[in-house]
Amino acid sequence: xxxxxxxxxxxxxxxxxxxxxxxxxxxxxxxxxxxxxxxxxxxxxxxxxxxxxxxxxxxxxxxxxxxxxxxxxxxxxxxxxxxxxxxxxxxxxxxxxxxxxxxxxxxxxxxxxxxxxxxxxxxxxxxxxxxxxxxxxxxxxxxxxxxxxxxxxxxxxxxxxxxxxxxxxxxxxxxxxxxxxxxxxxxxxxxxxxxxxxxxxxxxxxxxxxxxxxxxxxxxxxxxxxxxxxxxxxxxxxxxxxxxxxxxxxxxxxxxxxxxxxxxxxxxxxxxxxxxxxxxxxxxxxxxxxxxxxxxxxxxxxxxxxxxxxxxxxxxxxxxxxxxxxxxxxxxxxxxxxxxxxxxxxxxxxxxxxxxxxxxxxxxxxxxxxxxxxxxxxxxxxxxxxxxxxxxxxxxxxxxxxxxxxxxxxxxxxxxxxxxxxxxxxxxxxxxxxxxxxxxxxxxxxxxxxxxxxxxxxxxxxxxxxxxxxxxxxxxxxxxxxxxxxxxxxxxxxxxxxxxxxxxxxxxxxxx
Length: 512
Hints:
The chain is α/β, with parallel strands linked by helices. Helix 10 (320-336) links the parallel strand 11 (304-310) and strand 12. The chain has helices at residues 4-19, 60-63, 68-79, 101-105, 129-140, 179-196, 228-244, 261-269, 291-301, 320-336, 384-393; strands spanning 24-26, 29-33, 38-39, 45-48, 51-55, 89-94, 145-150, 203-205, 252-258, 280-284, 304-310, 341-346, 348-350, 361-363, 381-382, 401-403, 411-417, 423-431, 437-442, 450-457, 464-465, 469-471, 476-481, 485-493.
């Protein structure tokens, strides 16, 4: 969750990254080249990847009210491996908001995620049907890893009485006398899903950008500031509650979902022994500085590392520059940050959100009235970010190994060994420059020639399948990448040559 000031800051950073791409002049013709051949080999592993994902806040509050056929279509587009993105990580939002109509209308559409715990101490699990519907749809389509997180304590546990934050955004909003009650709420939700729904969250995260001072009363979304000392107390209590209710080790703790890498480092350096109760480090990716530092911290501590939230609203939804921005971020997070999981903020955004371009898909969320149930056949708009995400998520899956390709900052390579002994390789290369790039790769000596699939997203192409490329037995490949493109190469190396199948048709429309 970001504001426009931070968005402009990130846009400037991306412009600097693009400007850093090397351009040389040869015979008065400008072109960008990559030295090589760059080895694409299992001999150069970096990290085991756990998958791509999305948060359910806030879009599930609306998608979960759609008619079944429309819900299925949206779920297919996001989670299905054959027709959609095949996202495998889902972050479920433990709600904090009052169900009073006035309180709901004070929030952005979908932002008032209801607290399942009521002020009288009872639970109303039926309030959760919308998120639960989308989450189960994700599981049915192959999602593998589920995390529960809270943007705020329930409104009645806060100092301000507002789940948007304290009157002073620099101060904690969870009342100290409610520390135990908040932790109990988190573990009761996790326990309910475990015991009643046969559904296990691998991690639970009590915070969201806790160091930020943007969470203040009267804001239009849930949020809560926590000083590091408060975080320390909550995490210790959360670990004890998970143990007491016999929810660990199946459910561990992730933290602390700071806004940027450097803030995550600062927070963890103040945790001390509390780091021992955390199984996973989560950080948001809204600023790229500090990626190597958090990677070293996670590695030295033996913790998994996720980039657990990123999105951008740059440019128009159909502008390729929005896709290039997303791809540049992915490259930086996986190559420099070494993250094992990568999560987009929310896959579906409000189409009526003031002209912004957030979201992989866009739908009209309505005016946030409790009676404003979406109508049948709600139009879905596809952004360039959707097709850019597909360039990665369609091929690189849970269990794949990300390979070291430091010599080429614009290329991400990954490999996976199938049960039959064959090996899949996916290489995604991005050209954000003004001129063609010639990539030069070596896949090593292979037994027989094999055809590579090639897909591209550009200003005029949406995950378009191109002509197959024949990879000869020397394993060498050179390929020209046009400007402003994201191109994916996929191949399966086995003991037999592979004939090129018929090319898949390209999508003609950007809207359903």
